[in-house]
Design a protein that fits this description.
Distance between the termini: 22 Å
Shape: elongated
Number of strands: 16
Number of helices: 22
Strand content: 5-15%
Largest sheet: 7 strands, parallel
């Protein structure tokens, strides 16, 4: 089997923030040059008009041609603008923070690194020198946009000079219509960097569809592990069990490591949009499944945003479009299972999403005072007595046979994180599912929550979480428990205390549990942009940290 030997990198908006650092200055230079050439407006108006046209028509649009036509100027204005826009002025630029370390690590791992960039020759050379990254590359190729070779020929020359077969090389770039399209046409593996003007473009053809997408260059490490493992035919099967906001985080991280990723999802939700779907359409609640489908989707931001859209007014106020879509799909296809399967195809997901059961089932709880409460909303209601036991009604529902089969075939089973009783244990209550986990030869991991949840786990330590899981799964089944060691700042913890939640502590009672405990920093950076899965801005697991730790256990 062939293994990846080389990586071809684009420069602008792949290794540094060209859009943020240089495009605005280039537009202002072009505006000044056009006004000096006779454009009948001010420089500021010419600058704003460029932005207006680009935002209205997208990055593929010929802005300067349009401006010449708009102001009834000769097309020679386009050449004046382009010359100013592409002048060799560079200014102060720096690579993305993770670029130097990632390039150094990739070289140390034996990868051949090649840099290909096209544009005004002198200007591109100045950028490379200013960024200080030339030493990381085995070859730097700057192709003059006006006098150079065609991009296809350049890529073919690079492969030939370094004795590479196309399938041994990965191309990383931000533009699907140029370097990604060229690399796909030659048979290279393609990775799109989601940054800059072109990150929102929708592929027009299969040649513009990248094999992988990343938002940081450091994510290449995981991509390369996946590619090389697939080429060896050794891709592992992973089953992740849960629901709520925890399971999508696990899926989001693990999909970079394997395409054999199966989510087994709870269907006991009875609140908000999912509750209305249950009562109006007589279907299992689709909300938790929808979040997992979006987490595994490779269909692009627009379609994902569409499925997560929640109406804010009118008769549909509070309703999720994705939930409605799945409900209608069930009517069209004839079953809930078919609806999930067809929605998976439309969203182009990596892996598979399966409900733990397709029955109309509710979660119930017996409280410490002996009372019985029915429905997930009541089970998770804060302020009630502690939960003594949980069960399903009806109790004799049938498990999804496909989910049971995937559990039996798994190499790794991940349980949690997520609301302990309503997202995790609700799956273990489905008849046959806990038995299948116990019988599976897979390594079994439980990911403990970071904070307690009012109404479900008030005062719970890590040991209490494990004890609850083992009560419904059985003892000596779990192999590893992952627990967070990062103690957030006092202001963050105080915000949680005001809502009745505390950090889940790892105390001395953990020694009573006969399972390996791994403590690590698993908290996601609160300062970065995060997908919130429609919930409040909580402390939660970092998808990349969690996925790397889980995968290393294999």
């Amino acid at each position: 089997m062939l293994k990846v030997r080389a990586i071809i990198f684009d420069l602008d908006d792949t290794l540094f923030d060209c859009y943020g650092l240089l495009v605005e200055a280039a537009r202002r230079r072009a505006a000044r040059a056009m006004v000096q050439a006779g454009l009948p407006c001010t420089e500021d108006e010419a600058y704003r008009k460029q932005i207006e046209l680009a935002e209205a028509h997208g990055p593929r649009f010929d802005v300067f041609d349009a401006m010449a036509d708009l102001f009834k100027m000769p097309r020679s204005l386009t050449q004046v603008a382009l010359a100013a826009y592409n002048s060799d002025e560079v200014g102060d630029i720096a690579p993305f923070p993770d670029v130097p370390a990632t390039l150094a690590e990739l070289r140390a791992q034996g990868y051949k690194l090649l840099l290909f960039t096209s544009g005004v020759y002198a200007r591109q050379q100045k950028k490379i020198d200013a960024l200080g990254i030339r030493q990381y590359f085995d070859e730097v190729m700057v192709n003059d946009a006006e006098m150079g070779e065609h991009r296809d020929d350049c890529f073919a020359d690079l492969l030939a000079r370094h004795h590479l077969k196309p399938e041994e090389a990965v191309c990383v770039g931000d533009r699907i219509q140029s370097e990604i399209k060229t690399a796909n046409s030659l048979g290279l593996i393609t990775v799109q960097m989601l940054h800059g003007r072109f990150k929102g473009l929708v592929p027009k053809t299969e040649l513009e569809e990248p094999d992988y997408r990343i938002s940081r260059i450091s994510e290449l490490h995981g991509i390369l592990r996946v590619i090389n493992r697939r080429n060896k035919g050794g891709e592992r099967r992973v089953v992740a069990i849960g629901g709520g906001t925890g399971l999508p985080v696990v899926l989001q991280g693990l999909k970079d490591f394997t395409s054999n990723l199966i989510a087994v999802v709870t269907v006991t939700d009875s609140g908000r949009s999912s509750g209305r779907i249950r009562s109006d359409f007589r279907l299992p609640p689709p909300g938790d499944l929808r979040n997992c489908l979006v987490a595994l989707s490779d269909s692009g931001k627009l379609l994902n945003d569409l499925f997560q859209y929640r109406f804010s007014e009118g008769a549909l106020e509070g309703m999720s479009f994705g939930n409605l879509f799945i409900a209608v799909m069930a009517r069209v296809t004839g079953s809930f299972e078919s609806a999930v399967r067809e929605t998976s195809r439309i969203l182009a997901i990596t892996g598979k999403v399966l409900p733990s059961t397709t029955a109309d089932v509710h979660l119930c709880a017996k409280l410490a005072d002996g009372r019985i409460v029915e429905g997930e909303v009541s089970v998770r209601q804060p302020g009630k007595p502690p939960i003594a036991d949980v069960f399903l009604t009806p109790a004799d529902v049938r498990a999804n046979e496909e989910a049971l089969e995937e559990i039996r075939r798994a190499d790794l089973i991940v349980i949690g994180p997520g609301s302990l009783y309503t997202s995790v244990i609700s799956n273990l209550l489905v008849p046959g599912l806990a038995d299948a986990i116990r019988a599976s030869k897979a390594k079994k991991i439980y990911v403990c929550n970071i904070v307690t949840q009012p109404g479900q786990t008030d005062g719970y330590t890590c040991a209490d979480h494990i004890a609850a899981i083992e009560r419904y799964l059985g003892t000596d089944v779990l192999h590893v428990v992952l627990a967070n060691s990062n103690v957030p700042s006092p202001p963050v913890l105080e915000r949680y205390r005001e809502e009745g939640a505390e950090l889940v502590r790892v105390d001395e009672r953990i020694a009573e549990r006969r399972v390996q405990i791994i403590l690590d920093d698993l908290v996601e950076d609160l300062d970065q942009h995060r997908i919130l899965w429609e919930k409040q801005d909580l402390l939660r697991h970092d998808p990349e940290k969690l996925a790397s730790l889980i995968w290393n256990l294999l």
